Amino acid sequence: MSEERRPRPPVLLLVPFFVALAFVWVVPFVLGVRMSLESDALYGPSHFVGLEHYRHLAKSSRFQTAALNTARYAASTLLVVIPLGLLLAAALDRLPPRVRSGAAFALVLPALVPPVVLALLFVLVFAGRYGILNQALLAPLDIGPLDWLKDPALIPVSLLLQAVWRWTGLVSLVLAAGLAAVPKAYVDLARAEGATRFRAFRDVHLPLLRPYVALCAALLFLDAFTLFSGAYVLLGASGGTSDAGLLLVGYAYQTAFTYGRFGSAMAGTLATVPGVLLALYLILRFGKPARASG
Amino acid sequence: MTPLLSLRSVGKAYPGGVVALRDVSLDVTAGEIVAIVGPSGSGKSTLLRLVAGLDEPTAGEIHVDGRPAAGLSPRERDVALVLQSQSLFPHMSVFDNMAYGLRLRGRQAEAKALVENAARMLGIEPLLARWPAALSGGERQRVALGRALARRARFLLLDEPLSSLDAHLRAGLRREIVRVHRELGAVTLLVTHDQGEALSLADRVVVLDHGAVQQVGPPRALLDQPRSRFVAGFIGVPAMAFFAGRVESGPTDAEFRGEGWVVPLGRSGAPLAGRPVVLGVRPGHWLVGGKEDGARTDPGREGRVEWIERTADGTELAHVLVGGTEIVIAFPGRAPEQGALLRLSPDSRHAFLFAEETGERLCLADDPASC
Amino acid sequence: MRRLFPALAGLALVVVASFFAFPFLWLLLAPFKSDPELFRALPLLPERYAFDHFGALLDGRHIPFPRQLANSLAVASVQTALALALCAPAGYVFGQHRFRGKRALFALGVLGVVLPQQVLVLPLLSWFHELGLYDTLVAITLPGIASGLGLVFFTLVFARLPRELPDLARAEGASEGRVFLTLLGVVRPAVVSFAFVHFVLSWHEHLVPLVMAGSPATKTAPVALASLYGSTLRFPFGLLMAGSVLACIPPVALFWMVRRRFKSALEELVS
Fold first, then answer.
1. I need a surface site. Which of A202, A219, B8, C171 has the fewest CB within 10 A?
2. Does CATH place domain C57-270 in 1.10.3720.10?
3. How far apart are CA A107 and CA A103, in angstroms?
4. DSSP state, A241?
């Protein structure tokens, strides 16, 4: 047993953070819960209605659409951005150092653009007949003008493309750092045991990349969950045709400010929290598999 | 018996002009343990990588079992690698680590039996379900050896396998290395910076310096018949003492004169007269007399014992100051006390002469053993 | 087949690079184009390089854009400074000390990551309205200061420091506060990185400023641009693009300034 004389923890250094937390998070959280249990009015009298709003959610097709859209958006983002980022990261590894720095700078830039700006830009790209995408890419290929922002089938694709453009670069940099962190000795070992270079990548690099993938997945997931600008600017507060672009934050915003039903909006938001926690927990477990240490 | 491994004038140069290895030639037969020693940067690990097939030589050829090895992957050469610290995959269990090579070769079915057998032989069966992070350094290296054993590899390539282990664990692991080597009948190449390890384990030792082979031979030959000043100074602890001087021819015999020492060389030294040379004397090859012993033919020089160093095996080393230079003398038993005055002279029967310019050992004509 | 690989990879890289670079190029050239020009894919370059749109925005005749840019700057800077001041000390305590209830307290701090300010924007609105803070920059700045991400980040950063370092400072007679300040110097790249990331996130924030700002003079730049787009089609799109370019400058400029520190911090975190 070690005789460690640790100095008393400086509680004073903790106080500012938690005081601020209480003020800007705990109080709003409590208020939010109360709001979800009361009738809909932001200002003025309201009375307790219990779980009425939550019950309503179960029947609300709008809410379910929003939840489903968000889930689908999150999943598609993860499934496209991470593999693309991995490919880019592997390619980055092969570049000479000078080029690599330049490439790294270029890869971070898309993430620096405010989401609003990106959305405005993509308005130009995705616009109906005269959008850049339709003109530059598809017309030459003789694919008829696609209504990216109005066609419910294409709206999710537009959102996905925004996310891909925005995040792939950053994800590739994180994964490249992870690849660089793999000790060369393990690769030598794998090859000595008989693995081809590709097999060694699969057996050594990929498993050791898990924590990095998990980090990217967590950030992408949270971003998807809180996405507002992308949908709001492109599609307006309504969420686009048949709500194809309605995401959870958009749902809450619409319910609160367009329909004036604050209690419902809050209930909708809070109801998704367990799902988010579960997803994050799963991502964490993926990143740090519990190994029996015996 | 045809050598299992054959290197002919093998060289490795990197873009930018760095030459890691030059003109290395070596034949190793199955069942031999060859130790590769040398200072840092001498190319030891590079040599191992070339044999393993992880890198290709830029000059010369490597032959494995009579066939040219160029283009043969490590898998086809059937090598097993044991490294200094990262010898197990951290994300696989011990069993999976040991079975990895077998699985790659499609020998899934037999893997379990082979791994368990190997584990039993090394006494690591209880560790099979555990993870590398939970193992001690010694256990990890045992598992790495077990991996080679399970696969019955033809080549056992070890790169400083014991350097990260506590001293008292090394002896046990050394035994295991020899056991596995014998069981496999493999060609074992052991890279180490620990000469003691090399001299005690190896059938032959390769001494490298700046990428070039200085000498290859059984341990005894390196100690008693070093081919160059480098080898003489590198092998043997404590190190040999060197004195620069010339061979002078006297009326009857030649003698070495340098740094205040006069050492008779006998008639055989005559051909070397006039040459600048370096005399080398090992700590155990000094003739010591007390101050009173002045009646000897060769009075030697006087020195004073500055301090006594005791080694772990009981030898006592006296650090003696003679004419401003410190000389280390080994005493199998008790050394004279600190402060004592001694008369010293090198034992000319066991002294070495090296050419000043090339470092090459010079032969004394009537001493057949000296060449 | 093996020889084809680098060629294919090179081609793929060019395609990917264009996918990323083209929108940027477009953005930079867009403010100079008239509306019909904007909606044409080619030619790429505008007919004339007039700074009319920039002028129209910056002299405030449609919206008080310079003021709004300044708002964004103020909010992002103050919020970042506060977040640093709150999260770094807390991260030090969590990373280098043990005490009862540490886990629970840490979990509380981290909950903010799962329930970020966007989620609580409605009760925040109600709460700040009650406090009379509605339509102020304070209301926009405050919600983001207790950053859960910051807490996690700094806890990790300080936890990775060897125990010997603070012990050394303590042996020299430093108080815990002094120890913290000393260690802060050791982790400077991490501090710079966090400041940079937080600044950018704050600059980008849309929902909270949108909800908290009632009047144009309080809006932040991204919000102003969004409402400019949404309001009517009276304004030339080029105006929006000019504003967009201006809104991109601070984050990019900041990144350029910190790129070296950021890179070394990333490498340290990785090793």
1. C171
2. yes
3. 6
4. G
Instruction: Tell me if A49 is assigned to some domain.
Output: no
CATH of the domain at A240: 1.10.3720.10
Check: CB of residue B222 under 8 Å from CB of residue B234: no
B255, B248 Cβ separation under 8 angstroms: yes
The string of pLDDT tens digits covering residues B307-322 is 998 887 778 898 999 8
Using pLDDT thresholds of 50, 70 and 90, give the confidence band for residue B338: confident
Per-domain residue ranges of chain C:
1-50, 57-270
Is residue A98 situated within a structural domain?
Answer: yes
| Burial environment of residue A223 by CB neighbours within 10 A (0 to 12, 13 to 18, 19 or more) | middle
Tokens 């700002």 sit at which residue? C213
CATH superfamily name and code, B5-225: P-loop containing nucleotide triphosphate hydrolases (3.40.50.300)
**How far apart (Å, rounded) are the C-alpha atoms in residues B114 and B125?**
12
Q: Look up the ipTM and state it.
A: 0.85
The nearest alpha carbon in chain C to A131 belongs to C39
Chain B touching partners, 3 or more CB pairs below 8 A: A
Q: Which domain holds residue A206?
A: 54-287
Count the neighbouring beta carbons within 10 Å of the beta carbon of residue B327: 19
Q: What is the pLDDT of residues C180-201, one digit of tens each?
A: 888 888 888 889 989 999 999 9
Residue at A2 is within a domain: no
A37 domain residue, yes or no: no
Count of domains for chain A: 1
Taking CB atoms and an 8 Å limit, are B91 and A208 in contact across chains?
A: yes
Task: Kindly indicate the confidence band of residue B340, based on its pLDDT and cuts at 50, 70 and 90.
Answer: confident
**Class of residue C3 by CB neighbours under 10 A (exposed 0-12, middle 13-18, buried 19+):** exposed
Mean of per-residue pLDDT scores for chain B: 88
- Report in angstroms the alpha-carbon separations of C111 from A22, A67, A220, C87, C100: 12, 21, 17, 14, 19
Side chain identity, residue C153:
F
The structure's pTM equals 0.82
A178 and C CB contact within 8 Å: yes
Token couple for A183: 């000790």
Question: What CATH number belongs to B234-370?
Answer: 2.40.50.140
Residue keyed to tokens 């097993």: B80
Among C23, C85, C117, the residue with its CB nearest the CB of A16 is C85
Judging contact as 3 or more Cβ pairs under 8 Å, the answer for A and C is yes
Contact (CB, 8 A) for C144 and A20: no
Stretches in chain C below the pLDDT threshold 70: 1-6, 39-44, 232-234, 266-271
CA distances for B324 relative to B263, B306, B331, C88, angstroms: 19, 12, 21, 60
C49-88 pLDDT per residue, tens: 778 888 888 887 778 888 999 999 999 999 999 999 999 9
